[in-house]
Specification:
39% of the residues lie in helices and 26% in strands. The chain contains ten helices and ten strands. Helix 3 runs parallel beside helix 6. The radius of gyration is 17 Å and the shape is globular.
Length: 236
């Protein structure tokens, strides 16, 4: 049984249909990439999974639960956590305060301390900046803080929305390497990315979305070798 199973969902913004009969799944232990151009429906897919909007039809199941109509706060309790596009940190709070906001639903202070240290192991820069105001961090540091905050919720599934957006190639390398480390430690990842090459290089499987429709799926390697994907997303 898949950890996350999205089956033929439709989603609308007013009269505009953003997703059309979209289906995807994430199994335990996987990194799954969702790639597509701007406006293709990638972020809408994540918003629908996280309960920020509900599909007009179709079903979403997570870890044995039907979450199609579940609110976002309950979905976080079930273990789906998202690092959103644009980071969306609490800009006037410190790095440490932002990380602790990720753990606000938890009631295990001893384990929270352990998990903070784990985040600092993944992102040593955050440990150096732990008392710095988050809004004064560089773009790469803010992305690390946003990912660390999501990890503090102890996700069963981590959803990352454009983690490399606006970052230099060297910082992109760092972020994708850490995505691999997070997954190797046991956390499945649903990765939404415009940088299709890097996403597919790290992903076990991938989906290509165009105007709200899944048009292609396969392993990361298969999609990297696909002529259609190469022409549309890899500049070849």
């Amino acid at each position: 049984m898949a950890l996350l199973e999205v089956t033929e969902i439709n989603a609308h913004y007013g009269r505009i249909q953003a997703l059309r009969n979209l289906s995807l799944k994430v199994d335990k232990g996987e990194i799954v990439a969702l790639i597509g151009s701007n406006g293709a429906g990638k972020t809408t897919t994540l918003r629908t999974i996280s309960g920020l909007m509900h599909p007009g039809q179709g079903t979403i199941k997570f870890d044995g639960h039907d979450i199609t109509r579940t609110g976002p706060e309950k979905i976080v309790d079930l273990g789906i956590c998202q690092s959103p596009e644009g980071r969306r940190l609490f800009a006037r709070m410190t790095v440490m305060d932002n990380l602790m906001m990720g753990a606000y639903t938890r009631r295990d202070p001893a384990q929270i301390k352990v998990d903070v240290e784990h985040v600092f192991e993944l992102f040593p820069r955050l440990k150096e900046r732990r008392n710095q105001i988050a809004g004064t961090l560089s773009g790469g540091e803010q992305q690390m803080c946003a990912m660390g905050r999501a990890l503090m919720a102890k996700p069963k599934l981590l959803m990352l929305d454009e983690p490399s957006l606006g970052l230099s190639p060297i910082l992109c390398d760092t972020i994708f390497s850490i995505v691999g480390e997070i997954n190797s430690a046991g956390t499945p990842v649903l990765l939404v990315e415009q940088n299709a090459r890097r996403a597919l290089e790290v992903a076990h499987r991938g989906y290509v979305i165009e105007t709200g429709v899944i048009v292609q799926t396969g392993t990361g390697k298969e999609l990297l070798e696909s002529e259609e994907v190469q022409k549309a997303y890899l500049g070849m």
